[in-house]
Amino acid sequence: MPRFRETVRTLLRERLLDAAYEAVADRGFDKLRMAHLASAVGVSRQTLYSEFPSKEAVGEALFQRELERCLVGIQQGLDAHRDDLRAAVEAAVGFTLTLAGRNPLIKAMLTSTGEDGLLSYLTTRSAAAFDMATAMCDAYVTEAWPTIDPVARELAVDAAVRLTASHIVQAGPSPEESARRIADTVVRVALSTGRERIPDQGRSGPDPATRPQ
With b meaning 16 or more CB within 10 Å and e meaning fewer, what string describes 163-177? Predict the structure, then answer.
C-alpha cells in the first residue's frame, strides 16, 4: 500500500508539472496562478500546496525536470561519439542549444520579467544546475577519455558548460555553428597538458628560468 500511494503521488506531481509547463509556455511564468493550476488538473488547492508549497517551488521543479531531461540528451550525444572527442562535444552542445531554442519553457524563462520570473533560474539561481552539469560531464570525460590531462579536463569541462550556458542566454549564430565553435575551443583546451608556459610579454630579454647558469 505505501508503494501504491507513492506511485499515485508521483503521477500527480507529474500531472501538475505538465500543466504548469503548458501554462508557462502559453502565458509566461509571471501569470501562472496556483489556483488556476489546481483547477487545470482537477485537484484542490490544499492538494496542490501539499506537493508544491509555493509558486517558486513549482518553478524550481520545472527547471530541475528540464535540466535532467537535457542531461539525458547530452549523455546520448556523447555516447554516439565516444571515439571522437570533437564530434562528441559538438553533438552534446548542439543538442543543448537546439533544445533551448525549441523548448517553450526555456523560451518563457528567457523572456520572463520581474523578480518572480523564471529567468532567475538561469542566472542567480543557476549554481546547482552548473554543479550538476559539470559533475556529470567531468565523470563522463574521465571514464571515456582517461588519457586527457586532469587539469586540462577540468578546464575543458568548465569551458564547455559555461560557454553553452552563455549561448543559451544570449543566442549568437545558429546552434550548429555555435556548437562547432564551442567544440573547437573545448577540444583545444582538453588536448593541452595543463602545464604550458605563458610568455611574459613585459620582458624583452630571455626568461631567467631558461637562461644558462
Answer: bbbebbeeeeeebee
The pLDDT tens digits of the residues spanning 194-204 come to 565 555 555 45
H-state helical runs in 28-115: 34-41, 45-51, 55-79, 85-102, 104-111
Whether pTM > 0.85 for this model: the answer is: no
Task: Compute the distance between CA of residue 159 and CA of residue 91 in angstroms, rounded to an integer.
Answer: 16
Q: Which three three-digit cell numbers place residue 101? A: 531554442
Report whether 168 contacts 94 (CB < 8 A). Answer: no
C-beta separation of 92 from 74 below 8 A: yes
Q: What is the dihedral of CA 157, 163, 167, 168, to 10 degrees?
A: 40
